[in-house]
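Notes from hallway chat w/ T.B., transcribed later so I don't forget. T.B. wanted the structure written out for a chain they're using in a teaching module, and asked if we could keep both sequence and structure tokens in one place. Agreed to drop them here.
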Amino acid sequence: MNRILIVGALAVAAATQAFAADLPPPMAPPPRAPAAYIPVAPAWSWTGFYIGLNAGYGFGNSTWTAPGFTTGSFDVNGGMAGGTLGANYQFGQFVVGLEGDYDWQNIRGASNNAAVCISCDTASSWVATVRGRAGYAWDRVLFYGTAGGAFTDIKASFGALPWQSSTQAGWTAGAGLEGAITDNWTAKVEYLYADFGNVSCNAASCFGTATVSLKENMVRAGINYKFGF
């Protein structure tokens, strides 16, 4: 009986192998289509040197003080325009840099104080700043703060007397928003506050030497051309 079962099993195995040999080979899976190539634009970088132009408006106040009188604070204001030079370095989303600018300006104001019965005039024809910048970038948009040194000429005139001019150093601080409009061009708006302290005006008057102060706000728009590293 066992012999019969063994012989039967061998016969079934042989028949199965013969049937399998007669079957066609399995078909290979169809080749996969190559994945479509989607170009990825390179990330914008704020790193690089830049030059630019700016224009805006300056407004602030001046005070004359001398033995026996003071004008109190009076307004000065006028337009401005000039050039900019700077450099940025970006790491991650943080941007640091250094910027300098020189602007022609025509700010002027006067006080006709009744105590002196004559006009005290303050003016300035140029302003320059050298500032550090630090900000946070969302790709092509940069929010930044800035602070540094500021320089100007403070011109003072007592009545019809000739202007006396003195170059004065001070400090400045502010903030701005800048955005890339092409791969190389950026546009910005910014606000700066500058305090130039006091200068002396040796006015030929009965009041002697006067101390003249100037504080200025600057609102400017600019456009820069960036050279990448």
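Follow-up for T.B.: The helical segments are 2-22. Might be a good example for the class.
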